[in-house]
Amino acid sequence: MAMLGVQFQEGGENRMRWVRGFSIVGLLVATLFFALSLTPSLVPRSPPVQGLIAGLSFSTGYAVGVFGRWLWSYLEFPVPGYRLGWLVKVLATMACAVVAATFLWQATEWQNSVRTLMGMEEVGGVQPVTVALMTLIVFMVVLFLARLFRRTFQFLSRRFQPYVAPHVSNVVGIAIAAALFSSVIDGVIFTIGLRAADNSYQRLDALIQDDLARPTDPLQVGSAASYIDWQDLGRQGRSFISSGPTAAELSDFSGEPALAPLRVYVGLNAAESPEERARLALEELKRVGAFERSVLLLVTPTGTGWVAPAALDTVEYLQRGDIASVAAQYSYLPSALSLMAESEYGVETAREIFGQVYGYWSSLPHDSRPQLYLYGLSLGALNSDRSFDSYDIINDPFQGALWSGPPFRSDTWRRVTRERDPDSPAWLPRFRDGAVVRFMNQEQGFEAAGPDWGSFRIGYLQHASDPVTFFDPQAFYSQPAWMREPRGPDVSEDLRWYPIVTMLQLAADMVAGDAPPGFGHTYAARDYIDAWHALMEPEGWTEIDLERLHARFAP
């Protein structure tokens, strides 16, 4: 039986030299994975990103096919003879070409269906060519690494064969080769890459835009009266302090006198440790009179220190400027890299800031302290969620939190979603009676859960098409709950679950997906207006006023 397999392979190599060294079964499964990867996922994908997904899917499918072919032979199941084997290869090659061409032709239409759903312009042109070339490049790189690994393990195995049994030498060779490759990738390539990225973003963070002058208002951070130097705020901090509505703009909108919102920001360079930065933030809040405002917002930024203007500007309008906000930077890296490289550092910073601010806030008289709220987007939502322990605040709780685009790793979000009412969808859960935790999206607000929202409120603003929220590692082998009917309004009906492939698609959506405001991981000002209004219930806002505010932030 083994001889038949060898004869089958040797005959194929002589007759079809252009596929010599490749497994036909592997190519068949690879083509299937490649075709499925072209189907739509949560957000639109550019041709290069689609090519990367297709290349990884093709490579994964090839590995699955090769392993399946090996297992078939190892179990000594029957294999085609020489002549039949040659015919199978020809037919398989033709089938691969037809399937690949058909799905490539359809890929543009699938991507446009998602773009149309999100109100984006359609794309066309050379997408099939770009995807095919990217797939080939990615597959050749992966194949080279796989064959390099095989040669390494075979070399090591031969060195051990004089001393141990062949099966043992193979196991030892694979183990050593795996450890060697892992150490090179993790200890050399990954570390050097992260260090280079960190240095690059650190230099970018230090740049001061020409149009941002140092503040002269003593109530602004970075001014001559501030405890924090303008240079030490970092790029994101300087942008945060310099932006936002002014008192004049708020007054013109409302027709009444308004205060200038207070914004406090502590950059990474402002102090050596998270604890020192937290103390500095508290002292700056005291200096500018933040605890004398009606609302104090504790903001946890994303990885680079960025704070979404759509979130802060809208709540400052709703509070007519009678609000102070504070944020502290914990990384130079984007959220995805920060989560991999220094996830605990972000949590530590968020905990220190919360501990300092909450500790002072809770010492103030109840009737003369501001309402305290938390806010975070993406990684900021994750770290904000982990910044406090419920047992520490149960005797004196703050007012609530708004978390938008919570990552799939958020503990509270996962537990509440898992324990949701059985008749509510995973993409918009209803948790118990909505007395504490509520969810909203771009079509349904917090008020849908009923009028009785308690004094302590947690609100999640999320889109069904947000891959950062709905990425699921278990999509590797099972269909995620959010894909079941009924689906979210912004999720394509053409999206289907496929083992392995869907997880790769969602991972790419999470890292490189792109969507307009109101879809995916991009949250629009209009949704923040509704979220803040329901969460905080600021006085004096009529439906007409809210419509005017929506128009003010309309794109």
Q: State the CATH topology of the largest domain.
A: Rossmann fold
Helix percent reads 40-55%
Major β-sheet profile: 7 strands, parallel
Low-confidence regions: 1-19, 203-208
Q: What is the count of helical runs?
A: 18
Shape: elongated
Strand-and-helix sequence, N→C? HHHHHHHHEHEHEHEHHEHEEHHHH
* Class from helix and strand fractions: alpha/beta
**Percent of sequence in beta strands:** 5-15%
CATH architecture grouping of the largest domain: 3-Layer(aba) Sandwich
> What is the CATH domain class of the largest domain?
Alpha Beta
What is the rounded distance between the termini? 69 Å
Radius of gyration: 28 Å
Mean pLDDT: 85
Architecture blueprint of SSEs:
Elements: H1 2-15, H2 24-37, H3 47-74, H4 82-117, H5 127-160, H6 166-206, H7 234-242, H8 247-254, E1 262-266, H9 274-288, E2 295-300, H10 309-318, E3 323-328, H11 335-363, E4 371-377, H12 379-385, H13 390-393, E5 400-404, H14 411-418, E6 437-440, E7 457-461, H15 467-470, H16 501-512, H17 525-536, H18 543-552
Parallel strand pairs: 1-3, 2-3, 2-4, 4-5, 5-7, 6-7
Helix pairs in contact: 1-4, 2-3, 2-4, 2-16, 3-5, 3-16, 4-5, 5-6, 9-11, 10-17, 11-12
